[in-house]
């Protein structure tokens, strides 16, 4: 007969659920107690949660219907091109033929033309946006955050502020409003 401290040895090659069950029963029989009263019971470990987030984050895009366009320039991190609704803002301009752009609400609109637009920040710095698309249907002038990144600009977002720098030099800033970041610019027309 086995002593209370001795555990019977069972040779198991690989994992065999039947052998594991029998081994568990033998341990409890030799220890003279029921499995549910075992002091050495294996406690099921909770699943690993290293990358699990409890809060749900939801990003929504809402459509804003305006009669006239909204003055100023807005940063759109998801935009793949710069877009402007006002022809008067272009420094240079060429008409487009059979060109369309896909908007964020999944419908396309006709592009009237494209060209260069100069943006003057309230900081006194100026940037020139190239290949800006002109479409009459959009109601906000959009600066593509993606294209700014490709041009070497550093964009910092925090505490409802947007900061734009290049080569360590401050270029301009913006602020959060209407679910986007509006740049602090002097609104001027070409």
UniProtKB/TrEMBL annotation:
Ranges where the Retrovirus-related Pol polyprotein from transposon TNT 1-94-like beta-barrel domain occurs: 73-153
Keywords associated with the record: Membrane, Transmembrane, Transmembrane helix
Pfam families for this protein: Pol_BBD (PF22936)
Transmembrane segments: 12-31
Domain of life according to the entry: Eukaryota
Coiled-coil ranges per UniProt: none
Protein name per the record: Retrovirus-related Pol polyprotein from transposon TNT 1-94-like beta-barrel domain-containing protein
